[in-house]
Write a structure and sequence with these properties.
The chain is built from five helices and three strands, in the order βββααααα. The chain starts with a strand and ends in a 5-residue tail after the last helix. It has a domain of about 80 residues. By secondary structure, the chain is mainly alpha-helical. A hairpin with a 4-residue loop joins β1 and β2.
Length: about 130
């Protein structure tokens, strides 16, 4: 997926299968950065508004056992993002859908390239 912008701020979103959608964009990269901050603020607002109980404070010097509670692989993280119920209320469903599509395309492009480590380990023997 590729986003191109004109001087007027009009954008064209091109997907891998050739579909083209016109979008009004303003500094797309900045929008993603602002959305990251907005997601944190949305979480804070949601927690306060719904009186969510925070986790207990960790005592100073206490040993912490880390437990992975978030997806560590890109596709699973995006599946969890797509299933979100709170964030679309703050950022809008359309933005969340577009964000997810862009990240899935980015993940596909990343995985389409052969990492240099594969060359080092396997392909040098061929």
């Amino acid at each position: 997926m590729r986003v191109t912008a004109s001087a007027a701020g009009r954008g064209i979103l091109r997907t891998g299968d050739g579909l083209i959608a016109h979008r009004r964009i303003h500094r797309f990269v900045l929008t993603i950065a602002v959305a990251s901050v907005a997601a944190v603020l949305a979480g804070i607002h949601h927690g306060i508004s719904n009186r969510c109980e925070p986790m207990p404070m960790t005592a100073e010097g206490a040993e912490i056992e880390y437990q992975v509670t978030v997806p560590v692989r890109w596709p699973q993280a995006l599946d969890a993002f797509d299933a979100a119920r709170v964030l679309p209320k703050y950022l809008g469903r359309e933005y969340c859908t577009l964000f997810s599509q862009c990240r899935r395309e980015e993940e596909a492009n990343y995985n389409a390239e052969i990492p240099s480590k594969d060359f080092e380990w396997y392909l040098r023997a061929v």
